[in-house]
Amino acid sequence: LKIIKKQVDLPQMFVSARESLDSGINVICFFIVGFPHETWRHIFNTYKAIAKCAVMGIKAISVNVFSPQPSTQLFEELRRQNLVDLDDAYLQSLFEFPAFGRKKKSFNPRFSDAGITAVSLGGLALFFGIRFLLRPYLILQLAGEVFTLRSENRLGKSIKAVVFEFARGLKFRM
Question: How far apart are CA 144 and CA 125, in angstroms?
């Protein structure tokens, strides 16, 4: 967080999240992995924060892969290294939301595209694994949502999207 100049006090953030949860407010936490400087140690610390979110009862998280934004210091550094071009294709990619599980682009020399995608999916798996282990009734609730027309949570919506894409793929193969 220091390298990207985020002035976040993590212990205070978790206190605020706990107070919000206790007040009945839904809390979602957003994580970004794959910054150019990140190491496995940073990933491990991110995973610890993700696990803490699951234990404290946060309902959903998002684990996104770093994407350099124009006019930022990291973007300019990557541009000087010829790792990113400010062209139409890149600008368009900033507005596209990659499908769940689709391979992401890595801007970190320590992680391949497949590797950083696995790190992102690993964070989600860790969160939901702990969440369901501590609250097994949520598995039944989620199963019910997947088979109804409306889902109340992001995981239910994501699972429906994956099932739909899979079914659509089968339809085109037949």
Answer: 20
| pLDDT of 1 strictly over 70 | no
Whole-number Cα distances in Å, 69 to 72, 75, 93: 6, 6, 11
Cα 142 to Cα 53: distance, rounded to the nearest angstrom: 19
Instruction: Residue 116: name the closest of 168, 65, 150 by CA.
Output: 65
CA angle at residue 142 from 139 to 144, to 5 degrees?
110
pTM for this predicted structure: 0.80
Strands (E), 5-145: 28-33, 60-65
Amino acid at 60: A
- How far is Cα 26 from Cα 21, in angstroms, rounded to an integer? 6
Residue 89, pLDDT score = 76
- In this prediction, residue 90 carries a pLDDT of 72
